[in-house]
Amino acid sequence: MLEVRNLTRKGEYHNVSLKVEAGEVVSIVGLLGAGRTELCLSLFGMTRPDSGEILINGQPVRLRSNQDAIRHGIGYVSEDRMSRGLVMSQSIENNIISTVFHKVKGACGLLSDSKAQQLVARMVNALTIKAPDTHLPVNTLSGGNAQRVSIAKWLAISPKLLILDSPTVGVDIANKAGIYHIISDLAAHGIAVLMICDEIEEAWYQSHRILVMKQGELTHSFLPDSSTQQQIAEVVNG
């Protein structure tokens, strides 16, 4: 589904090549500053690589903006939901429909309340977002439920690829399990998932493949079935 060939952005990442197939969860682990988020920002059209190729379903694409990425079916859940992922003072509903306003417009081009409510209700139900009223601001929710809203807003575009940057940061243990279930369910429904993980244990349990990034380069690839967390940790920290 996604293929990256020799992607380079000076000072951030170098000669990166990877693939993520439909229904596959691929995680990237590494130390802070390894270049993982920087790579994902380019895959979502927020920054431009200096060289290399990005292919979607075998076809080269130019992602000059996040709108280009969205048109190609790419969603991006930011590591910083409070400043980049969500508008915390806005309602749950407004955040979820922010990526798909064109889907919830009425005949006159204005917001259709009924269409918006139907879409939001579907997302809230699918991700088991616990909120008494979707008109409440996101900042009234727990960290786990706010993260579900962040994921919901990108699921609303029916993505082919979902990039998850540290999706369980700031989420309590109980809600982490729920996020993991969502990720597994996305893959089961054929969505390609590229995930940045700060915890090797998380990547090991949740991924089909694990890539190690060091100083801007992908250096190793592991299969959880044939590797241990200790082996991966030794490479990351070595």
Automatic annotation (TrEMBL):
GO terms for molecular function: ATP binding; ATP hydrolysis activity. Gene3D superfamilies: P-loop containing nucleotide triphosphate hydrolases. The keyword NAD does not apply. Its EC number is 3.6.3.17. Residues 2-235 form the ABC transporter domain. It holds the Pfam family ABC_tran. InterPro entries: ABC_carbohydrate_import_ATPase, ABC_transporter-like_ATP-bd, ABC_transporter-like_CS, P-loop_NTPase. It comes from the Bacteria. Keywords: ATP-binding, Cell membrane, Hydrolase, Membrane, Nucleotide-binding, Repeat, Sugar transport, Translocase, Transport. This is ATP binding protein of a transporter. It comes from Klebsiella pneumoniae.
